[in-house]
């Protein structure tokens, strides 16, 4: 989730908006809990449903072009299968939506449904026009940053850096209040493409890939089947836009601005919600 500043079976991600500062440190890796799409070969094709208005569709096209520079992923835009307001998932693909979701503190939310403990089966990415219609965020760079990051969460990437005071790393997987930089944080960098190799490419299993901002050791493997199938109905019926449904707090840091929640359905099916608050969390959420 990408939170708007002021003072997620599935995973929800956010990116906080705070000030820049000293030079950034290297993140060991930014695989999100080992979550990945099960597939029998690479590159694997992942369909992205277009439920967007024209200003956002341009950003999705750019994001698809950027992430398709990876050798393991073929991201393809298709007609949307959801209503933007609720942005319900479609098994075996991701849905990308925009709407005015309200004054709730977040700019974007990415969600992935997990089964078997680690396998992504479907995902959504939502952009909140309540904020993007305001002058501060109604810019190409803000839209590019949030779209790039939220879509990336749906194939298992976390953030390269979560220190709000660090200088830009030149990747959309980095927190910033100044997406233009320098360097610009509106597109992936080599560390992001390396992480996809570490997650998905068996040729890099056990090998370490390192850049000036990132390092990862490969764990990639191919699967005997793909994660296109049915999930327990309860996992689709719950309204995960409501924080009350996020489940128990399992991790909190940065004075409550970064939090992880878990809603466990058993048998390896769960909802993990990762939130980055740019304002103090509202209500009692276990901080």
Please summarize what this structure is.
17% of the residues lie in helices and 26% in strands.
Structural class from helices and strands?
Answer: alpha/beta
Q: Helicity range of the residues? A: 10-25%
Largest sheet geometry? 7 strands, mixed
Please trace the helix and strand order, writing H or E for each element: EEEEHEEEEHHHEEHEEE
- The tally of beta strands, per DSSP, is 13
Q: What is the top-level CATH class?
A: Alpha Beta
Give the CATH H-level superfamily. Collagenase (Catalytic Domain)
- Note poorly predicted spans: 6-26
Distance between the termini: 18 Å
CATH architecture: 3-Layer(aba) Sandwich
Q: Average pLDDT value?
A: 82
* Residues in β-strands, percent: 25-35%
The CATH topology turns out to be Collagenase (Catalytic Domain)
**Total tally of structural domains:** 1
């Amino acid at each position: 989730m990408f939170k708007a500043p002021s003072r997620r079976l599935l995973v929800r991600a956010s990116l906080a908006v705070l000030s820049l500062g000293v030079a950034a440190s290297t993140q060991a890796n930014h695989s999100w809990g080992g979550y990945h799409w099960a597939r029998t070969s690479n590159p694997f094709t992942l369909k992205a449903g277009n439920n967007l208005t024209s200003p956002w569709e341009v950003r999705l096209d750019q994001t698809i072009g950027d992430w398709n520079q990876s050798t393991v992923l073929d991201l393809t835009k298709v007609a949307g299968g959801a209503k933007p307001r609720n942005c319900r998932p479609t098994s075996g693909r991701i849905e990308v939506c925009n709407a005015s979701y309200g004054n709730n503190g977040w700019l974007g939310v990415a969600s992935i449904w997990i089964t078997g403990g680690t396998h992504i089966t479907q995902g959504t990415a939502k952009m909140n026009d309540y904020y993007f219609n305001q002058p501060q965020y109604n810019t190409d760079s803000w839209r590019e940053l949030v779209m790039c990051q939220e879509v990336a969460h749906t194939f298992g990437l976390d953030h390269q850096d979560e220190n709000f005071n660090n200088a830009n790393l030149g990747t959309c997987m980095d927190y910033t209040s100044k997406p233009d930089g320098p360097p610009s944080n509106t597109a992936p960098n080599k560390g992001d493409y390396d992480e996809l190799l570490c997650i998905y490419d068996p040729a890099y299993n056990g090998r370490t890939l390192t850049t000036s901002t990132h390092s990862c050791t490969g764990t990639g493997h191919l699967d005997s089947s793909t994660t296109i199938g049915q999930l327990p109905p309860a996992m689709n019926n719950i309204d995960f836009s409501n924080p009350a449904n996020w489940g128990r707090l399992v991790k909190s840091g940065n004075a409550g601005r970064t939090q992880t929640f878990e809603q466990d359905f058993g048998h390896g099916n769960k909802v993990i919600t990762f939130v980055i608050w740019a304002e103090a969390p509202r209500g009692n959420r276990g901080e």
